[in-house]
Structure formats: structure tokens, C-alpha cells
Description:
The complex is a heterodimer. By secondary structure, chain A is an alpha+beta fold. Chain A has helices spanning 37-47, 107-117, 139-149, 156-159, 162-166, 172-184, 192-199, 213-217, 224-240; strands spanning 5-12, 23-30, 67-70, 73-76, 88-93, 98-101, 104-106. In chain A, the strands form 2 sheets. Chain A has a 5-stranded mixed beta sheet. A two-stranded antiparallel sheet of chain A has the order 6-7. Chain A starts with a strand and ends in a 5-residue tail after the last helix. Chain B has one domain: Up-down Bundle (3 helical TM bundles of succinate and fumarate reductases), CATH 1.20.1300.10. Chain B contains 8 helices and no strands. In chain B, helix 6 runs antiparallel to helix 7. The interface between A and B is medium-sized, with 37 and 31 residues. FE2/S2 (inorganic) cluster binds at residues 56-59, 61-66, 76, 78 of chain A.
Amino acid sequence: MIERELTFRIMRYNPDEPEKKPHLQEFHLTEEPGMSLFVVLNKLREEQDPTLRFDFVCRASICGSCGMLVNGRPTLACKTLTKDLPDVTTLLPLPVFKLLGDLSVDTGVWFRDMSFRTESWVHTDETFDPDAPEKRMDNAVALEIYEAERCIECGCCIGGCATANIKPDFIGAAGVNRVARFMVDPRDKRTEREYFEVVGNEDGVFGCIGLMACDDNCPVGVPLRDQLAYVRRKMASAGWRYQKV
Amino acid sequence: MKLQKALSYSPRADFIVEVIQMVSGLLLVLFLWTHMLFVASILIGSNAFNGLSLFMEKNYLLPAAIVFLVLVGGAHIGAVIRRIPSRWAEQKIVWKHAKLIHHADTWSWLFQSVTGAAILALAIIHIAVVTYGGIDVIYSSGRIKHGFLVFYAVLLLLAEYHASVGLYRIFVKWGWVKRHKLHWVLGVISVLTVGIGATVLWIFFTMGVHA
Ligand code: FES
């Protein structure tokens, strides 16, 4: 195998030095077998520029901290292999989220805010009895919940969403998926009407204009399009019968 | 909640506008296709075309169509306008975003708003010309011969593009059909509609030449 010489154009920006405009810096390195962007970035930091900032924790598509734009596409850097990349690759941080520097963004604040606004907890008036045996859940329902819970909150669906890019309050596919998770959960006693007041509006599911970049880019393959449609249909029926319920 | 929000609280407003956007869009697509079928009567012959046009005139179908377009088209514009980034900064963001992420459906949305605006302008001209000029084989072919060929070709393409992308979006959002199947079906319909339209235009154009 002939070793390729790879070029990476990486965005450099330090919010503490606002006088320096964001710019792309070029790095070169030799490709190795099985190389992922995790390896690339760490190598660059170790061997070429110790100030380079980026985030990795699990390097196995689990923690969701390494979302970035790889040649424009929002994806996880740790699961991107250099063998799938062209000779020149541009790396940018995810938009929408607060930029901490270079490729590092803070997805936490955004997701926390979204969790609050979608009231992401089981709403119930049953008092919890720690001694009682756990209530059984139907397997199919449990799997449906699990499907939504597979979201690792990397923010790729948000960064790739045109609406989220211009509307700061839009909860995006991650938010709608979260709501869907509680909608199928039988322990959550919220009525359709209560859900409607949270997501039956422009900041919620009706703000989606159907570009489906979220669905196309989700690195862990959560069926976002189905989740969006599911919540949309539920909310439409709630909106339709709003006066009566 | 803030006071201004509490005072103007209408939880269903966004939902209702979304429904208006969809229903008016569907009606306009239906109108477009009916319109294409009607003009296609020229394929049967001049008499069919003139007969249909006479029939429509006698039964006030032309003014009815204009009232329909003003109402439904107006509702559609009123509803979709909220989707179009109105501030310069936002416009810059969405175009940059589309260029950055290389995503076909994001581009098609931008084209959708551009074609929508263009259709509005062209359709107003088209309606004005047809209302004042009349619909008849001689008039129509004369118009197309003398300068309107390109105008109609452009309007046809824009309208069909806008309609099929709009339909695609509706089905995708509500999750009624698989995306790839949808691409295929809408592609076939678009090709058919544009094919019919182009043939009609060509027939009128050659008639105008011979007249
Ligand atoms: S480092 Fe955890 S998902 Fe990439």
C-alpha cells in the first residue's frame, strides 16, 4: 500500500483572543492503516501543535463528544476513518453550539436547556415505593423507548439542521426524539394536550421544515425521520382535538 | 412565561398555520395539474382546446380560477413567508450552511423559496396576459410565437419543480411514504408534466409560425 500524504485544514479559533479571526490552518501527516480522526487529531496535537483543541472521551461512538463537520458533514470524528476521506479534509466545529475553541464545542448547555424545556422526566403522581418490585414493561414498548434512548447527544442532527442554525429556540431532532421517548413510556402520565403545549409549536415539531439532514447524518442511526413524523402526527391529532381534550 | 406571551397566548396558532401551508400547497398542486391537463386538450386538436376555453368562459370558470388563486395562493404565501429567513444575517447563514454541509435536501429548500418568489411574479404576469388577451388557439399560439415561449418554458419548469419539492416535503414530514420511493414517483410525475407542457408549448409555437 502506498502511503498517502494527508492534508487537514482545521479551523483555529480561540474565544479568548477575539482579535484573531477564525481561520483554517493546514496540517500534513502520513496516513497509517486503520487510522481514524481520533488518531489524526491526537497525533497532530502531540507532534505538531499542542494548542490544538478538540474533544474525545470514549473514541467508540458512545459518549457523543467528538461531533464535528468533516468536509462539511456533521459526524463523529472517532468513527471517521481516514481511508474514507479524500487527500484534503476540512474540519470545522459543529455550528449552533457554543464554540469553546478550535474543534471543541459545548453541547451540554444546549442539551440541558432542551431537556428542561421538553420536561424530559417521567411525569407521574404515583409515589415511588423503593421496596415494591419493579413494574414490568411490555418488551415491545421497552425496545421502542430504547430506540430513542440510543441518542448519544453528539449534536450532529442540530449542527446539520438549517432551522436550528437560525432559530436558537428550536429543539431540533434531538429534542423531538426525546419527547417521543416519553410519549411511548407508559409511566409518563402526561396527556396529549400537555405534550402539545410543549412541542406543538414552531420551537417544537412544527418548526421542522423537513430537510431531514438530521436523519441523513445521525452517526448512530436513530430513526429520526420516523420519530419526527410520529410526534408530528400525535401533535396534529392533539391540535385537532385541542378544544375537546 | 412573560406578560406579552401570556396576553397573546394561542397554543394552536403554529399548528393552524402549518395546516394552512400544507392544504393550500396541495390545492395549488392540484390546480397546476388540472391546468396542465386542460391546456393539453390542444393535443386532441384546436377544436377541443377552443371548446374547453369557451365552456370555461360560459360557466365563469376563469374568474373562479382567479378568485381561487388569489385566496389559496395568498394563504400559501402568508403561511410560507414565516419560513423564509427575513433578516440579512439569517439569509447569509442558511446559504453558507447549505454550501457547507453538501446536503441535497437542504439545497432544494433554498431553491424552493427562490422558485416560489419567481413563480409569484411570473404567475401574476401570466394571469394578467391571459385575462386581457383571452384564451383561444389563435391568440395563444400568437403569444407564444411572439416572445412568450421562453417565459412559459421557465414558468412551467419553476412551477413543476416547486410543486414536486413541496409535495416531497409534505410526505417526508408526515412520514407517509418511504423517501426513495417518493423520489421516484415524484420524478416520474414531474417528467410527465414537463413533457406535456413542453409538447403543448411546441405545438402552439409551430402554429404561431404557420399562422
Ligand atoms: S469520542 Fe465518544 S463518540 Fe467520539
